[in-house]
């Protein structure tokens, strides 16, 4: 028997925050919005990093600019940390729900038509998360034991006494293992983005018949360009295209 | 048994208005004191349950499907008629009424049909308000198409899925009432008996098909909207689960069964491909708007591919025989014409049981894209089933059992001969006479549910002493014992044959002897054979499993058990009706070249020949007991407005 | 044909269930998939065993009752086709075919291949309607609706509620079904007055039934026998967002 549900009481009793944090769609909005914010950061960060291909002073000046505006940088960092926290929380909470929704698996568990990127979002996301921790320790906190060189990055100074970011990056990426880790990680990041960016627009309802396909294609193309951009840095260092001026 | 049709007096066009005023009312505060049981959740059942709940009655609704949305109304493809005259092509309530009466070969009840035509417009209004996405013109107004048996465009449609959309509309209204707590819904529940208390239908016995539990439900009235009995033929376009059980068990309790021999054979179905076939698939009649029906002129060409047969060697037999209606001749006529050419040995495809429905001309005239837009889903369906593309070669079609005009006898108020038992939709007999026109079934189901029963049931409640028995009443004990008895007997039979083998056999027997052409000889043969088969069924059926959980073999066995008896009633009625009309064709009664109507060119040789002097009546059969002959009651058909004439679609 | 069938057998919701293997005889290519199962069941009954329970009714692809996962694909993976319309000619003569029920927490198994999909009905009861009583509707042509809007609503309304979308989704999400139902009504002017309330209530019920969330894999769209588009999910996401922002 289909029994009676209290229909009228349903509509009220939920304010906007509980809609956002409790409903599946609300959590998807949070995931999508935080994801898009992180995506914007990934692009900005890449543009900053690509200055490595110019003269060493350029990227060092950029680094010094950030240091000189530390309030803004911390503002951005707190925002990004908040986004990461929300992104991960929603990912774990939705994944738990999703797992619970299918208690018994099929004999052949590959879902039809789902792309590899879409099926591995949690895995690629988690690996990227651990990579970010490593990346922060490596280049931001500059912990010596993770960089694989017998040298602390804190000691690298430019002629005018500022931190020599250019040399740090070059020395850091001259370690083949480290460089490989970076290439793999940005590869996973971009796999994650190739599905995630389009899906975020979908989750936020920001697509339609006309520009939906454009967004999906663009998200794949941009993801690939991001991969090329990020991966080019360690590869350029390894192959000696960048960093001639830094002593071996 | 006394049959009173309760037709209101006065001029035909004012009967319903007058009757609505004469009907007693139940005041709004009192409505919640009445319980109504609705069996079936198709168009008629859902619309009735929803509307009665909206009015304030307490409704329990039952269906055998796992959701009310899956009732077989969902499969109707073509459309729904309404006398809106939006096309300005000469339609009117009176014309819809007349077309329906004439289409039914003058065997329907005039007053009922007129009421149907009157409320047809409101149905469209109601459905649009519910959000049914009918097809529209670019200007935003509703589109129409034409259908068999009419010369105006009055059919509203939603692609090839009109039944689905109308049912979803009724289901949404029903769902709203379930959500509000006014309807208690019982899916996967089968009605197995009606409970009579003091001569009135006051409850039902059901079996929960998921748990096997047998349950009692009491109410102030019982509405049955349980569809037709086409599956008695084994192969039909009905859903596999459609059955006669609810109506037949009510019949056994005293409700008269009317005109069972009026069965409709739909002309455009996909032909049978082999013995394994479990059902037949309909191709919408709307295809006949653009498709041309033909067979080779010469038997010798039947084996050739269609494109190898030149234009001059093709016989477009519908266009030839019925120039003014052409390919849109009514269903019974088109079906019989197909049978005729196949009997002549000019049929195409496996076993010579098929005719071509050719779209080549239409594709040339309108382009493949236009045809795809109109019928794309049907063409796809055809290809999935046959593996052939109808864009490249003509479809092969053959008639198949599709709808049953007969059903439980009801009066003008849709109440059966059993007081308190109302019957709606295909389950009753009232509106289509001996043949139903295309796009009229949806119209009737919704008319009964939305616009008739809400008025007439109130009158019943207001006229009778209020008496909803408790389910402890001895009548419930007796009915439950009866149901348990049937279930146990089936489970204990432990024979050798499967239920399906019996169903296939009885179906084949009925199809061959009481199908598109019937004769005294064939019917007598069937009537001899059916009781033997029935006896064998009870002896030798094999139903594995138990009655205490889901047991699909048991459900099926109960239904086939009823077909075994019903088949006999069907043939009895067909034998008694010594005339041909609509879906009932007796080979002894057809026009020959000696008849004046043929000589003066009004009709053709071989057309159905009615006998109005002797058979202008509704045959209502009373059940008298197991293995006993049925008793016939006649309700004479008095036509006040229309003159009975020989149907001509030339 | 000489097929090997691996069929899921389960006595009831509490039973863990297992696969059983059959090698049916007399299967021919013109049979539909369900007719093939009919043959298997006839053999089982004749051998005195319980037949395989499976849901089916219209056998013409419109009622949405049949619900088989065939070789890991709901309805067997033929484009725009329900299991009842799938024909054996699509299989190889010596194939091994695995048949399972829809698998989702919200669709508990009743028996063998039969599942309980009443969750869908409960979602509709929360708002899948226009609140209009019988009678009193204005003339149908009072409200012109552009053909584009009407056609798009029809695209959504075609959903047969079979649940293949849930069965296919790796998260057992019902988003395609719910969005089709919400969009059908919300697109049409008749459904606009209740649009916000409808989407909020239906999504809430969807969550309560225990369906997963959408991760935009597109599996649902790929297996949908009525080819309902993912665009309706986008639309529902938009409708829901607007509704909760309005409060």
Describe the structure.
The complex is a heterotrimer of chains A (248), B (650) and C (247). With 248 residues, chain A is mainly alpha-helical. Chain A has helices spanning 7-11, 16-22, 24-49, 56-68, 70-100, 116-119, 121-140, 165-173, 176-203, 212-238. Chain A has a single domain, classed as Fumarate reductase/succinate dehydrogenase, transmembrane subunit (3 helical TM bundles of succinate and fumarate reductases), CATH 1.20.1300. In chain A, helix 2 crosses helix 3 (24-49) and helix 9 packs antiparallel against helix 10 (212-238). The mean pLDDT of chain B is 95. Chain C folds into two domains: 4-114, Ubiquitin-like (UB roll), CATH 3.10.20; 117-130 and 143-246, Fumarate Reductase Iron-sulfur Protein, Chain B, domain 2 (Orthogonal Bundle). Chain C has eight helices and seven strands. Chain C has helices at residues 33-46, 118-125, 147-157, 164-168, 175-187, 195-208, 219-223, 231-246; strands at residues 4-9, 18-22, 68-70, 73-74, 96-101, 109-111, 114-115. Chain C has a five-stranded mixed sheet. In chain C, strands 6-7 form a two-stranded antiparallel sheet.
Summarize the structure.
With 248 residues, chain A is mostly helical. Helix content of chain A is 69%, strand content 0%.
Any chance you could write out the topology, listing elements then pairs?
The complex is a heterotrimer of chains A (248), B (650) and C (247).
Chain A lengths: L6 H5 L4 H7 L1 H26 L6 H13 L1 H31 L15 H4 L1 H20 L24 H9 L2 H28 L8 H27 L10
Chain B lengths: L14 H8 L5 H4 L3 E5 L3 H13 L2 E5 L17 E2 L11 H11 L6 H21 L24 E2 L5 H18 L3 E4 L2 E9 L2 E9 L5 E5 L2 E4 L20 H8 L4 E2 L4 E7 L22 E5 L17 E2 L1 H5 L9 H13 L11 E4 L1 H7 L1 H19 L8 E10 L2 E2 L12 E3 L17 H23 L10 H20 L5 H16 L5 H21 L11 H25 L19 H4 L12 H4 L1 E6 L8 E6 L14
Parallel strand pairs in B: 1-2, 1-9, 2-5, 9-17
Antiparallel strand pairs in B: 3-4, 6-7, 7-8, 10-16, 10-18, 11-15, 12-13, 12-14, 14-15, 18-19
Helix pairs in contact in B: 3-6, 3-12, 4-5, 5-12, 10-11, 14-15, 14-16, 15-16
Chain C lengths: L3 E6 L8 E5 L10 H14 L21 E3 L2 E2 L21 E6 L7 E3 L2 E2 L2 H8 L21 H11 L6 H5 L6 H13 L7 H14 L10 H5 L7 H16 L1
Parallel strand pairs in C: 1-5
Antiparallel strand pairs in C: 1-2, 3-4, 3-5, 6-7
């Amino acid at each position: 028997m289909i029994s009676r549900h209290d229909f009228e009481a349903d509509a009220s009793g939920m304010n906007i925050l509980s809609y956002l944090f409790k409903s599946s769609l609300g959590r998807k909005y949070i995931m999508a919005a935080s994801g898009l914010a992180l995506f914007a950061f990934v692009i900005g960060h890449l543009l900053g990093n690509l200055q490595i291909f110019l003269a060493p002073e350029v990227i060092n000046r950029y680094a010094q600019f950030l240091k000189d505006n530390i309030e803004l940088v911390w503002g951005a960092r707190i925002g990004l940390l908040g986004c990461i926290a929300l992104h991960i929380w929603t990912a774990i909470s939705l994944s738990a729900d999703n797992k619970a929704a299918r208690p018994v698996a099929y004999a052949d568990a590959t879902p039809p038509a789902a792309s590899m990127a879409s099926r591995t979002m949690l895995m690629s996301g988690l690996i990227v998360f651990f990579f970010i921790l490593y990346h922060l320790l490596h280049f931001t906190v500059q912990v010596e034991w993770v960089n694989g060189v017998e040298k602390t990055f804190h000691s690298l100074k430019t002629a005018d006494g500022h931190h020599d970011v250019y040399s740090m990056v070059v020395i850091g990426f001259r370690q083949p293992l480290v460089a490989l880790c970076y290439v793999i990680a940005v590869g996973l990041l971009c796999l994650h983005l190739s599905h995630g960016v389009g899906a975020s627009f979908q989750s936020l309802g920001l697509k339609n018949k006309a520009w939906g396909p454009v967004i999906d294609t663009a998200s794949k193309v941009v993801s690939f360009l991001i991969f090329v951009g990020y991966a080019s840095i360690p590869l350029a260092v390894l192959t000696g295209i960048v960093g001639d001026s830094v002593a071996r | 048994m006394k049959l009173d049709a309760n037709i209101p007096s006065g001029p035909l066009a004012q009967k319903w208005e007058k009757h609505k005023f004469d009907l007693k009312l139940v005041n709004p505060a009192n409505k919640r004191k009445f319980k109504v049981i609705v069996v079936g959740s198709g168009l008629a059942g859902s619309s009735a349950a929803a509307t009665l709940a909206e009015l304030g009655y307490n409704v329990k609704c039952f269906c055998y499907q796992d959701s009310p949305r899956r009732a077989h109304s969902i499969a109707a493809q073509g459309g729904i008629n309404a006398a809106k005259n939006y096309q300005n092509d000469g339609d009117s309530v009176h014309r819809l009424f007349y077309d329906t009466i004439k289409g039914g070969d003058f065997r329907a009840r005039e007053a009922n049909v007129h009421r149907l035509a009157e409320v047809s417009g409101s149905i469209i209004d109601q459905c649009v308000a519910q959000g049914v996405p009918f097809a529209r013109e670019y200007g935003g107004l509703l589109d129409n198409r034409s259908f068999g048996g009419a010369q105006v465009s009055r059919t509203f449609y939603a692609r090839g899925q009109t039944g689905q959309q109308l049912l979803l509309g009724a289901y949404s209204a029903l769902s709203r009432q379930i959500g509000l707590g006014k309807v208690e819904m019982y899916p996967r529940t089968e009605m197995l008996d009606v409970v009579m208390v003091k001569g009135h239908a006051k409850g039902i016995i059901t079996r929960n098909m998921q748990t096997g539990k047998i349950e009692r439900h009491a109410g102030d009235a019982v509405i049955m909207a349980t569809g037709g009995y086409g599956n008695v033929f084994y192969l039909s376009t009905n859903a596999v689960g459609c059955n006669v059980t609810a109506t037949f068990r009510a019949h056994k309790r005293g409700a008269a069964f009317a005109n069972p021999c009026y069965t409709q054979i739909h002309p455009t179905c996909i032909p049978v491909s082999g013995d394994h076939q479990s059902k037949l698939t309909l191709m919408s009649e709307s295809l006949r708007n653009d498709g041309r029906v033909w067979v080779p002129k010469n038997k010798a060409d039947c084996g050739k591919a269609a494109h190898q047969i030149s234009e001059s060697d093709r016989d477009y037999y519908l266009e030839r025989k019925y120039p003014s209606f052409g390919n849109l001749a009514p269903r019974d006529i088109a079906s019989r014409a197909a049978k005729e050419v196949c009997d002549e040995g000019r049929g195409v495809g496996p076993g010579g049981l098929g005719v071509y429905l050719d779209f080549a001309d239409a594709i040339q005239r309108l382009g493949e894209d236009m045809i795809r837009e109109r019928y794309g889903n049907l063409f796809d369906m055809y290809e999935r089933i046959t593996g052939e593309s109808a864009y490249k070669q003509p479809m092969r079609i053959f008639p198949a059992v599709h709808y049953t005009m007969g059903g439980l006898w009801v009066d003008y108020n849709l109440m059966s001969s059993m007081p308190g038992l109302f019957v709606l939709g295909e389950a009753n007999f009232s509106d289509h006479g001996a043949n139903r026109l295309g796009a009229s079934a949806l119209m009737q189901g919704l008319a009964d549910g939305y616009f008739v029963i809400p008025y007439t049931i109130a009158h019943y409640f207001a006229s009778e002493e209020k008496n909803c028995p408790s389910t402890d009443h001895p009548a419930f004990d007796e009915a439950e014992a009866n149901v348990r008895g049937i279930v146990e007997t089936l489970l204990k039979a432990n024979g050798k044959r499967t239920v399906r083998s019996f169903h296939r056999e009885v179906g084949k027997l009925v199809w061959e002897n009481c199908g598109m052409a019937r004769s005294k000889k064939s019917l007598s043969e069937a009537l001899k054979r059916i009781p033997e088969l029935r006896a064998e069924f009870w002896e030798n059926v094999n139903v594995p499993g138990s009655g205490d959980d889901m047991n699909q073999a048991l459900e099926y066995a109960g239904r086939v058990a009823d077909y075994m008896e019903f088949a006999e009633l069907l043939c009895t009625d067909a034998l008694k009706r010594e005339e041909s009309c609509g879906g009932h064709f007796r080979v002894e009664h057809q026009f020959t070249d000696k008849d004046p109507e043929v000589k003066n060119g009004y009709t053709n040789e071989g057309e159905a020949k009615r006998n109005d002097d002797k058979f202008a009546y509704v045959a209502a059969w009373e059940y008298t007991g197991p293995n006993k002959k049925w008793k016939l009651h006649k309700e004479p058909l008095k036509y006040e407005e229309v003159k009975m004439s020989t149907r001509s679609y030339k | 044909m000489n097929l090997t069938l691996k069929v899921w057998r389960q006595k009831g919701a509490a039973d863990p269930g297992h696969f059983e293997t059959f090698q049916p005889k007399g299967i021919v290519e013109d049979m539909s998939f369900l007719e093939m199962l009919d043959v298997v069941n006839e053999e089982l009954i004749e051998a005195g065993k319980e037949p395989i329970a499976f849901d089916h009714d219209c056998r013409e692809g419109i009622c949405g009752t049949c619900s088989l996962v065939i070789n890991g694909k709901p309805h067997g993976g033929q484009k725009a086709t329900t299991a009842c319309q799938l024909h054996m000619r699509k299989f190889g003569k010596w194939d091994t075919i695995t048949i399972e029920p829809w698998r989702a927490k919200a669709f508990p198994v009743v028996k063998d291949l039969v599942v309980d999909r009443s969750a869908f009905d409960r979602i509709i009861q929360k708002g899948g309607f226009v609140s209009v009583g019988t009678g009193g509707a204005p003339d149908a042509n009072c409200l012109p609706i552009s053909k584009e809007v009407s056609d798009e609503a029809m695209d959504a309304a075609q959903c047969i509620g079979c649940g293949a979308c849930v069965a296919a989704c790796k998260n057992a999400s019902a988003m395609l079904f719910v969005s089709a139902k919400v969009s059908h009504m919300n697109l049409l002017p008749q459904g606009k007055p209740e649009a916000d309330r409808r989407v909020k209530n239906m999504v809430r019920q969807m969550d309560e039934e225990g369906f997963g969330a959408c991760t935009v894999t597109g599996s649902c769209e790929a297996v949908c026998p009525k080819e309902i588009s993912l665009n309706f999910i986008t639309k529902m996401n938009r409708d829901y967002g607007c509704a909760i922002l309005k409060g």
